Amino acid sequence: MIGFSDWQPMMPLLKLLAGFASLLAIVYAFHWIAIFVHELGHVCAGLLVGFDLVEVRIGDGPRLCTFRAGTTHWHIFAVPWGGWVVGFPKNSDYYRIRQVIFIMGGPLASIVLAVVVFALSFPGALGFEHGPEMNPVTWLLTFLAVFEVFWTLWPRKHRLYGGEVSSDGLLLWQIRSGPKPAEVIAGGLQWRAVQALSIGHKEEAISLVRQMIEVPNLANRFPHELVLADVLSEAGNHAEAEEIYRRLLGAVQEDDRRFVDLVDSLGSMALYHELPHLYPESEALLRRAIARWPEAKTLNGTLGGILVEQNRDEEGRILIEQLYRLRTNSTDLGICATYLSVLAARAGNDAEVAKYRDEARAYLPKHRLVDRLIGAEALKK
Ligand SMILES: [Zn+2]
Predict the structure, then answer these.
(1) Is residue 110 included in any domain, yes or no?
(2) Which residues are near ligand 1, the ion (C-beta closer than 5 Å)?
(3) How far is Cα 360 from Cα 341, in angstroms, rounded to an integer?
(4) What is the pLDDT of residue 98?
(5) Residue 271 maps to a domain
(6) Cα of 168 to ligand 1 centre, how many Å?
(7) CA of 5 to the centre of ligand 1 (A)
(8) Is 329 within a domain?
(9) 316 in a structural domain
(10) Number of domains in the chain
């Protein structure tokens, strides 16, 4: 039996642990405040210069909540580390100076927070007479607030949301060499179109991509026209998308890398939306693209799918298994797993059907092709 007296020698250690835990809690809470203040600084600056704010993210890691305020999508995550505000100008007036204000809004808000924490932590400083006594906690908070300012202004790239993001300092540094205003405005419209599609607002998405290709002074219209066709295809306007893909295919040589993107887009539209009239043409184009661009491995998956759709199972299986073994990215893996599940079903191998179906759903939780072939939609048929 353990009596109270046995615990006595442990008390200093327990107190130390409790102190450490409460310090961690304070740092965690403070970091939330620091990130909120910083990102709200960008939001206010963006509104001040008339930017279209499309997305605000606060924190990283597991998603806590998502909501839409006006046309801005907000995402709050559980780990108070990092955040971003994505905003775009709607016109090119005073473009650079507005960009500078938008980028500086965050660091300026962090500086204001650091000054406030400093004033509250050191009574008498900056004319504030009342405040808590100086103690390790106020020292720490002051240090964190000042650190936050340097951290955002230090020009560097850091990992965030599964990719690389430029710090505010780096964005400022690159502002002269960055993309031209027309490209940035078009990029903003594209971002909003993709976002509208993701919540099922198809008409809004189409209207946004149509505005996108009308932006004056676009240096290179090709990528934007390809996006227009992709969005039309996703929204179900296949005939118009097909027309644009064909027009772009007519304007591009086979040794141009854009040929690969076009062929893949056309083939994917045929697969995702089940358009058999495109299968023979897509197959021919994909074979030409693969011969010219053997390193574009994704094409093997698209061609394999086209073959399986035409019941040429063994030809298709070879290509799909090849791409599947390379484990290039989650989209390729999800598409391969989907077709491997279809092939297993045709062969009557139930264990493999289940295995690949689960894998496909894990790699592509919300995907048109997965839904059509093995998802809830397919099971209803
Ligand atoms: Zn920032």
Answers:
(1) yes
(2) 106, 168
(3) 9
(4) 95
(5) no
(6) 5
(7) 53
(8) no
(9) no
(10) 1
